[in-house]
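Holo model, U2F. Inputs:
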Amino acid sequence: MQVPNEGHVAALAFPFGTHATPLLTLVRRLSASAPNLKFSFINTSKSNQKVFSKIKPNDYQNIKPFNVDDGVPEGHVFSGDPLEAVELFLRAMPENFKNGLEGAVAETGAKITCLLTDAFFWFGADMGAEMGVPWVAFWTAAPCSISVHMYTDVVRNTLKGKEENGDETLDFIPGMSAIRAKDLPAGIVHGKLEAPFNIMVHKMGQTLPRATALAINSFEEINPTITNDLKSKLKMVLNIGPFDLAWPPKSFSDESGCIPWLDNHDKASVAYLSFGSLLTPQPNELIALAEALETQRVPFLWSFRDSSKLQLLEGFLERTSTLGKVVPWTPQLQVLEHPSVGVFITHAGWNSVSESIARGVPMICRPFFADQGLNSRLVEEVWKIGVSVEGGNFTKSATTKALELVFSSGKGGEMRENIGNLKQKAKIAVGSDGSSTKNFTSLVKVVAGCENA
Ligand code: U2F
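Output:
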């Protein structure tokens, strides 16, 4: 493929959760395939610092970070509500990004030729049209969750008055018959429909048909019916993942010594626990989880990000010092790759689910918010590669039951077999002739402005 000598791609990042990191990975993949193009990465200063600190300057030579206003007024005192920073940022949009784009054009001296945004940013459609350039939206989660946002109005109309117990299924949407109303993210039929975040994702679903392309960090074979349905509704749907298989990080750091610790354990014997980048379960759930691990004598490696809550586990930590290891952060990809890991206890954030699939580790899911309920349901009911904790939250008995199911029952064996098959499909998708590889080539053409090349 001939890539033009000129071109300036502006990438607009959502600076919360695990959104900016996969977007930067995508930008790095694109810049490696189209080294003639310039890339501007437009994000808040805090998030830019975080995501760029993880990579070496050599790895982003033609990518320039630009900082935008995070919307936090000077001297603002946060109340402790995790959504507050998000809502302040949403209020500053899209003006902050318009300023960021102007800054990127002024500093590089190159006009924008392609707008690549987190799919949340529905205003990319108008921005792209005004600039006369393609708008490429990037969805960091699964095809299933984007489908739900595309069908929000249909779901609302169909479930009106029936959503009470949440057991109504979405069998009126292709590929979604296993999904129940209660698995849906807040903002579709329950929760505050008028909350700024929920308005944003609703608008996203309505605007995506205007996108030149939608790129997804997944692979087609994982949900072919949903992918085909999305293809019938959008101009171009390009599953280009799983990223961590298609473009694995070159190095990793293991400051807490997780890998040597895992080396000293038997095959598939360890439970790995992590709840992603945003949350820590409530104290009663933490205690129930700890009690189940201790009683079952399951060796565990726990990524425990909020050290202020560690005191809740006092006593447990001392009693289990030879059974388990609690660390502030792990090299998760390498941990999941390790043969000693037998189960992943997760909040079912998409990156975690996808990384676990790509490494063949069955899951125990305890979803909290957003797409996590959908992902858990797919894990348990559709792919049959794990289980959700009974009753929806960690109690000692529900966690014990889930551990027994994965470690000691025939069902656990089936889960391992199913996830092994899915892992194979993921590997094929990112192979030289695979669907994700072909889709990525199409994406490079769109971004480089030579889609007919
Ligand atoms: C939001 O998800 P989170 O950021 O909370 O969680 P994940 O999507 O699972 O991503 C967590 C990432 O952090 C890494 C891990 C994942 O790539 O490998 N990590 C690590 O390297 N070491 C650790 O000790 C712990 C984690 C949101 F909450 C979800 O609902 C969405 O699905 C998701 C994607 O949009 O963003």
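The longest strand covers residues 38-44. DSSP finds 19 helices and 13 strands in the chain.
Archived with the compound record.
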